[in-house]
TrEMBL record:
Species assigned in the record: Flaviramulus multivorans
Taxonomy, superkingdom: Bacteria
Protein name from the UniProt record: Uncharacterized protein
Length: 205
């Protein structure tokens, strides 16, 4: 009985996509790539943002580190206009930091319309994925690149005229809807700001 309970616990707490689902493999065509605000205009709420030169294969990498355990911590990209009802892919290249290995990504418009995902940058899988409001079919994707880097994405039909992107390092239980909340431990990630993209998609005929 104890063995059965242990097995169930492991299954429940394992990554939700052990097969490392890659939505980039779906036959989608990019019809428009949106222009996003430069990272100098991003808002870093209780996060430090330091340029990192240690990874020669990924020039332009920055280290994002949580500076508070008690309060929310995240990076906010100002709102970007989109076409209501279109399908979009929001992606960014991320690598596990020195403290922890979880990364949170959120796409949000008017409350409560949002999609959240937490990615495991050590195992290369999705820990949790949650859609709310009108964003009912948001899907997360993680694709392995090289040297420990991953492309983390959210794909969804967005019933809104604008979206904001929120992201940051997280730890603890890795729950999607609260990834930016207080944590037990300090944590960090490496990101490529220029890799953040919002792409309008359509299914190839």
């Amino acid at each position: 009985m104890k063995i059965l309970i242990l097995i169930l616990f492991i299954l429940i707490n394992s990554c939700k996509n052990d097969k490392k689902e890659d939505l980039d493999s779906i036959d989608l065509e990019v019809v428009n790539k949106l222009i996003l605000p430069n990272h100098n205009l991003w808002i870093f709420n209780r996060l430090s943002f330091d340029e990192n030169f240690s990874d020669k294969e990924r020039l332009g990498a920055f280290k994002v580190t949580r500076t508070s355990l008690e309060e929310t911590a995240y990076a906010l990209v100002p709102e970007t206009p989109i076409i209501y009802g279109s399908k979009y892919r929001i992606s960014i290249e991320v690598k596990k930091g020195d403290l922890g290995y979880l990364f949170g990504l959120r796409v949000v418009s008017e409350y409560p319309n949002r999609i959240d995902a937490v990615f495991d940058l050590k195992s290369g899988c999705i820990v949790d994925n949650k859609s709310s409001g009108n964003f009912i079919e948001g899907k997360a994707s993680i694709a392995q690149l090289n040297n420990g880097w991953y492309k983390c994405s959210i794909i969804s039909e967005l019933d809104s005229n604008m979206v904001r992107v929120i992201f940051g390092p997280t730890s603890g239980l890795g729950k999607a809807i609260t990834w930016e909340a207080s944590t037990k431990d300090f944590c960090d990630n490496y990101i490529i700001p220029s890799s953040l993209t919002i792409e309008e998609l359509k299914i190839k005929l």
